[in-house]
Amino acid sequence: MRALYSAATGMLAQELNVEITSNNVANMRTTGFKRQRAEFQDLLYSDLRRVGATTSETGTMVPSGVQIGSGVRTVATPRVLSQGSISPTEKELDVAIRGDGFFRIRLPDGTTAYTRDGSFERDAEGQLVTSDGYILEPGITIPDDTTSITINQFGQVEATIGGQTAPQNLGQIELARFANKGGLQAIGDNMFLETVSSGPEQTDNPGAEGYGNLLQAHLEMSNVNAVTEIADLIAAQRAYEMNARVIKGADEMLSTTANLR
């Protein structure tokens, strides 16, 4: 009976939907996290009576036909890359992006990764690095005797150094954009990698046309909305239950057929 297998695909799809929702909820407080959603497509159809088939010698055709679907499948789990809320931190090396763009991060193997997480630190050599010690590109080194650091909205980094009155320019933070942000590959640690689907990176300074600007001593929070996620979770649970009821109903029908005398 087709109903058994169709309902089974529905249960599997809603199980994955719940897994996506659970990951969103788990990352509600993850800096720069972008929520995902599941997208589904219907599977192949069996034509019991093909649309447009001829039913008489005069050319009369079937107007709608009889088609039976075989279920559903998950085709994508795209990220919703909307702006998260901006939260003050009072830490001068924290930087939030307001608008489009990603920070460029150099991984140990030389690969460039991309992140919206601007919670930077200083390593033993004074370089700006992520919480995992990966270097921000282009590299910016802060002198040991620095008393204060200023990062303006255009990404210019200046430091007030002991014994000097005028601030010293330390470098420029750049942002990267992509033709298809949804095509980036998430690798964990709040980072993404460029793929063929995302297209090559396009870099420029914050505040340039099409690029966001920066806000020092702030961080971009997750764009997960608790109310929306709970509503999605309830909807997925109910859909799962309804598919389970279909399986139960199909089983009872098969049982009735099997018990016929």
UniProtKB/TrEMBL annotation:
One of its GO terms (biological process) is bacterial-type flagellum-dependent swarming motility. Transmembrane segments: none annotated. Pfam families: Flg_bb_rod, Flg_bbr_C, LlgE_F_G_D1. Residues 4-34 form the Flagellar basal body rod protein N-terminal domain. GO terms for cellular component: bacterial-type flagellum basal body, distal rod. Coiled coil: none annotated. Keywords: Bacterial flagellum, Cell projection, Cilium, Flagellum. InterPro entries: Flag_bb_rod_N, Flagellar_basal_body_rod_CS, Flagellar_FlgE/F/G, Flg_bb/hook_C_dom, FlgE/F/G-like, FlgG_G_neg, LlgE_F_G-like_D1. Residues 96-159 form the Flagellar hook protein FlgE/F/G-like D1 domain. Residues 216-260 form the Flagellar basal-body/hook protein C-terminal domain. It comes from the Bacteria. The keyword NAD does not apply. It is found in: Bacterial flagellum basal body. Belongs to the flagella basal body rod proteins family. NCBIfam families: FlgEFG_subfam, flgG_G_neg. The basal body constitutes a major portion of the flagellar organelle and consists of four rings (L,P,S, and M) mounted on a central rod. The rod consists of about 26 subunits of FlgG in the distal portion, and FlgB, FlgC and FlgF are thought to build up the proximal portion of the rod with about 6 subunits each. This is Flagellar basal-body rod protein FlgG. It comes from Rhodobium orientis.
